[in-house]
Amino acid sequence: MLNEGKVIEVNKEQIAIVGVENWGNPPFKQYGDLQKALRQVRQVPFKVLLSHDPSHWAEEVVKTTDIALTLSGHTHGMQAGIRLKNRKWSPIKYKYEHWAGLYAEGKKHLYVNRGLGWLGFPGRLGMRPEITCIDFEK
Question: CB neighbours (10 Å) of residue 80?
Fold first, then answer.
């Protein structure tokens, strides 16, 4: 989805899926236009945003929208990390505040998926690949 929103309706219940082009902090470009993407779905009360870079959530989504859930990736958890019980650490935390898992601010949520692939180093150390399944309940 390139700066657009679509409505999905099942049994008279609606959910908006909103997608933006890349939006990132330098050196990554900010092509995403969230306000343009929201134009077609403003009336839908529950919105899910697909935004590749999780920094978009804190910079623009939380402050200016009513989007309930943002789904991001981008960091791959830097393909290296440690998880012990409820604690997690990766060197990517020094670049991204939100880099893996679920985050919340009020009623707004961000889920950052660690992804399947790799960039640069062809492997992962303690940062397993991930496919996420999210169930929505009313």
Answer: 16
Query: Model pTM?
Result: 0.87
For the segment 81-95, what is each residue's pLDDT rounded down to a tens digit?
A: 888 888 888 878 888
What is the C-alpha separation between 129 and 118, in angstroms, rounded? Answer: 9
Helix and strand counts by DSSP (H, E) for the chain:
3, 8
Could you tell me if 23 and 31 are in contact, meaning their C-beta atoms sit under 8 angstroms apart? yes
b (16+ CB within 10 A) / e for 38-58: beebeebeebbbebbbbbbbb
- Interatomic CA distance for residues 110 and 98, integer angstroms: 8
Structure tokens at 20: 């933006």
d(CA 127, CA 21): 26
